[in-house]
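Trying the structure run again after the queue cleared.
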Amino acid sequence: MSGGKESPRQKMIGMMYLVLTALLAMNISKDVLLAFITVEHGLNNTNQNFDQKNEVLYAKFDKAMAENKTKTKPWADKAFKVREEAAKLCKFIDESKSELYILAQPELTKAMADTFQLHKGVANDNYDIPTNYLIGPEIATPTGKGVEIKKKIHEFRTMVLGLVPEKEKAGFKMGLHTEDVYDHHAEKNVPWEVSNFDHTTMAACMCLLAGIKNEVKNAESDIVTLLLREIDAGDFKFDIVTAKVVAPTSYVVLGEEYTADIFVAAYSSTKNPDISVGNVDTTSKEYPKMIGTATPVPVTAGLGKYTVKPTSEGMQTWGGIIDVKAPDGSIKSYPFSSSYMVARPSFAVSPTKMNVFYIGVANPVSISAAGVAPTNVVANLAGDGTISSKGQGNYEVFVKSGTKCTINVSAKDPRTNSTKSMGQGLEFRIKKVPSPNAKFAGVIGDGAITKGELQSAGGIFADLSDFVFDLKFPVTAWTVSMNVNGLFMDESGKGPGLTPGMKALLAKAKKGSKILIENVHVQAPDGDRKITGCNIKIK
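Done. Tokens:
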């Protein structure tokens, strides 16, 4: 919206993106997917409302053209160009969503995909399909549909900004930014499409694409409103007044405050309306009234600020009436309603690769707290070890000893710099990394090899297959034993390679000879460890 002050509609859109960002930081559970569906549904409804409001603006241009074509046409041509380009961009986004639905559910036809609804999807938690479609096979060099979406967004934004009169440029605010975004985890700038769509689920992608449409329609509304005002601000009187409720969030942790802004869209900063919260009788739409006791809301410069601290969990529905004095002295009443969710403090800790912590290695963990931004989550480890943040809700846990440890999570309030526990800590088991197996000449445990295979053996190494970590266990010492002409002989060495003595001993092997690989020591994450050797027979 033009002007230095952020509009209520921009606040509403910003709030919806804050909710979406918080959901993206959480683990993809059924509840989170349902939340994405709810947000996407709300964005779609908002987009429909934008369409209706924008059509009112274009109707005013049509009326102005009929009344004074000469004065109106230069501004009307620009406005209708915006409508055309906004429609093209939104259509392109809708086509992209349809293609995504078909990739996720090949049984859908084009017609079915065009009207498909997110809550019917069977692959809403899939992130491979949207990542490959929108970014492509290489994250470093995106080639997917997201590149084209970014290009079209940039072109639309450039066009809109080019239509802003010079005197309005300083105060005109517009979103749809497509610049590279700094990735704190990667510690570098990444392309806009990678920042938005890399490893993002189908449900989240649909929310993001709906949000982009929201910004397009909002930008369309702002520039068309400005162009309309440029004709003659005194010619047009907006005759639609709607009650609005805007809250920073609709999800509140029990014990915290819920805050919402209540206002009339066409309010006056010099004449305050009367705002009351309570039960509303809307039997008569023309004359709504309060039922029972009502709570007045303080109003400053036409804006009411409602604050309440919930005392119970679940969905909280509230509403009231805004009374505005009309120019003829009569009172016009506008009912409103809204809701917010209240939940107990909670958090989730999810091991990235395993359900235990292993001693001596970096155990990756994802931690999120309901309704709390990742930067405000504080995690502590109770036990012999440490936990360190890697950014974006990712952590590494190092444990040194013991059988159990506990992760405690709290939320930091940046306004007061205080912290609050998010619930009882979660306990994890501690284990040693399992021992690898000695492997010599391709044999693990017992096995038979040819003399040629023995001669080609270069040394011994430790093999740990099918483990969640890619760990190396350097061999530090081992012994080769063999019966030579009735005399049992052995040779020992340091490191994994064959010593000259070992080579000389193995050269005496013949068909039927038995070779023992024993006393094998390796360097494990927790220190020196002896592992099982091999029994080899020459065939």
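The first strand starts at residue 181 and ends at 183. Worth checking whether this holds up in the mutant runs.
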